């Protein structure tokens, strides 16, 4: 599903965020990427979402090299990926329903089908009753769940999340992570960047540990204590 | 959280479902949505929209007003220059038959449309009709006026051709004086030429100004919505998708300012109607002053809409390239 081969990323100014990184994630697998602040977790996800391009190396998604994806192909690729952000990035002047429906509008799905799927996604994250509300009226955890509903509504093959529980209390964080685990169980590949080690240990999934942009450990799910 | 709900993931991915007929339907649907949403966005900040439309409308109305003014000056010149004859006064003592002989020769010229022979008596009668001359004419013992040939040049003659005709008339024996009142027309034509060129340059500059106004408004709009644009692009929106509402905003700005410009031009026309009508009456109806043609009034809003679209297109392409 995801393959990184000797990937390096050096930003303008010389800072090397990732260095010679190689790993792969199998289809339907769930993995955490962890490490201290500045370890390169977010850069890794940005490279997958084509927000950034690598300086060296190969990144492939479903066997397709991302280097071959031109500017015009980026939107199509992003429609295959569901992205969840720490700051949820919701459109605050649109309702919860409109936010969740957005990827389907972009994907050209018929209105009736959009309604069905957006409501199914909202129900999945437990927010169907809030569909007409504006995100500003929701709590941080609820907003994050709206962000997750938006990420899954177009049925992506890959779900990536950058510190999705960063602003949440521990109980809510567990609920969100369990939600991600459910998506993995139905075949979605899930890659989550997080520095919340207790939570990662609790989930018992594969953990990729980065330090200063280098891979320092790749712990299989069964080895997580 | 409800776990009993059907998981969206069990179905075919959205990107794989998008086929051609639906693609067109969604494109069409998004155009409708973009047109409506951009209009609502404009209406949600009436003052800003009004100011932008007013500036653009005034910029577009000025060339229209010039067009109206110059067109009417041209028409006035045409009307006053109509049947503008060259008068050739024969020498005193020339007889009627001599006058007819010269007239016949002139009628054979290719640059002459008509020649009328005016007898001294006809000349005297014309003078008598003019106010204030009646008494003076009664005091005369005999008629001092000569035969006069009113020579009408062929329509469409160039100024230098008319000038050549006048020179030729002066060279004819028996003609004492040639009076050509066409010089003022030449000057008017030259002035109109300067005016038309000035109006064209002004129209181009003001059109550019309108383009810049709409471009800058759209630039500020895009800047204020950069977060929304980021989100749209992150969830897979193409640049065309993101740009569409801004293009419609440009079209709306253009259309409204075009309508305002057309309205202002009509108001200028109405304001001029009464004094122009008086002027026309003073020339015994010879002056037919016209307004702006209907096709132009209809075309202006559409042309302005295209202008608005162009401004938005240029700026949004540049801004979104930066955002991407």
TrEMBL record, chain A:
<keyword id="KW-0472">Membrane</keyword>
<feature type="domain" description="ABC transporter">
    <location>
        <begin position="2"/>
        <end position="225"/>
    </location>
</feature>
<dbReference type="InterPro" id="IPR003593">
    <property type="entry name" value="AAA+_ATPase"/>
</dbReference>
<dbReference type="GO" id="GO:0005524">
    <property type="term" value="F:ATP binding"/>
</dbReference>
<dbReference type="InterPro" id="IPR003439">
    <property type="entry name" value="ABC_transporter-like_ATP-bd"/>
</dbReference>
<keyword id="KW-0132">Cell division</keyword>
<dbReference type="InterPro" id="IPR015854">
    <property type="entry name" value="ABC_transpr_LolD-like"/>
</dbReference>
<dbReference type="GO" id="GO:0005886">
    <property type="term" value="C:plasma membrane"/>
</dbReference>
<keyword id="KW-0067">ATP-binding</keyword>
<dbReference type="InterPro" id="IPR005286">
    <property type="entry name" value="Cell_div_FtsE"/>
</dbReference>
<protein>
    <recommendedName>
        <fullName>Cell division ATP-binding protein FtsE</fullName>
    </recommendedName>
</protein>
<comment type="subunit">
    <text>Homodimer. Forms a membrane-associated complex with FtsX.</text>
</comment>
<keyword id="KW-0547">Nucleotide-binding</keyword>
<dbReference type="InterPro" id="IPR027417">
    <property type="entry name" value="P-loop_NTPase"/>
</dbReference>
<comment type="function">
    <text>Part of the ABC transporter FtsEX involved in cellular division. Important for assembly or stability of the septal ring.</text>
</comment>
<keyword id="KW-0131">Cell cycle</keyword>
<keyword id="KW-1003">Cell membrane</keyword>
<comment type="similarity">
    <text>Belongs to the ABC transporter superfamily.</text>
</comment>
<dbReference type="GO" id="GO:0051301">
    <property type="term" value="P:cell division"/>
</dbReference>
<dbReference type="InterPro" id="IPR017871">
    <property type="entry name" value="ABC_transporter-like_CS"/>
</dbReference>
<dbReference type="GO" id="GO:0016887">
    <property type="term" value="F:ATP hydrolysis activity"/>
</dbReference>
<dbReference type="Pfam" id="PF00005">
    <property type="entry name" value="ABC_tran"/>
</dbReference>
<dbReference type="GO" id="GO:0022857">
    <property type="term" value="F:transmembrane transporter activity"/>
</dbReference>
